[in-house]
Amino acid sequence: MRHAFDFLVYSVAFLSGGVLLGLEIVASRILAPYFGNSVYVWGSLISVFLLALSIGYWLGGGLADRRPSLVVLAKILASAAVCILVLPLVYLPVGRYVADLGFEFRFSVLLISVVFFLVPSVLMGMVSPFVIKLSATGLDEIGRTAGRVYAVSTLGSISGAIAVSFFFIQWLGTRAIVVVLGLILLFLAVSCMAYERKFPDSI
């Protein structure tokens, strides 16, 4: 049972890392129709995603200490999935609206990056502290567990970046890629809930 649990939570770390970087790659295409693909776009996106991760690590660590549960982790993943799945419905009209407000260009790019990507990225940033908390079986292995989780999450991020930039962008449109990323998180949320129902005393 422990092996199945570890496989689940490390899969969550890997795939959520992949979704995060995949979303960052495709984010440039979401902003491109109204803001182009300049250094300001990438600077805004990188800054917003890193800010979101910082907030997510902080909030996730605190919440994991108070409520270390697969159910809570599933709710975080499902919330991030909803935020991402809403994007294809709103990013064109909202992007047009912000572009037409007449703000200074750099501020507009930063604003739309925050509106679209801050919340889902914060939620995905909360995942790693949760996985560390759920995976560690004692204080003597917290360091090893944290190292493994962040290594797996980073490998997932690399895989997500390569998958989206090398393959998905050629095969799928922007909307379809975003939907796929959201569905991956939704699948992870359902998997966590299913495991918790089957093995309620596993943690």
TrEMBL record:
Keyword Transmembrane helix attributed: yes
Transmembrane parts of this sequence: 7-27, 39-60, 72-93, 105-128, 149-169, 175-195
NCBIfam families on file: MFS_SpdSyn
Cited Gene3D superfamilies: MFS general substrate transporter like domains
Keyword Membrane: yes
Annotated protein name in UniProt: Major facilitator superfamily (MFS) profile domain-containing protein
InterPro entries from the UniProt entry: MFS_dom (IPR020846), MFS_trans_sf (IPR036259)
Major facilitator superfamily (MFS) profile domain ranges (all copies): 1-203
Keywords associated with the record: Membrane, Transmembrane, Transmembrane helix
Top-rank taxon, per record: Bacteria
GO molecular function: transmembrane transporter activity
Organism for this UniProt entry: Desulfomicrobium norvegicum (strain DSM 1741 / NCIMB 8310)
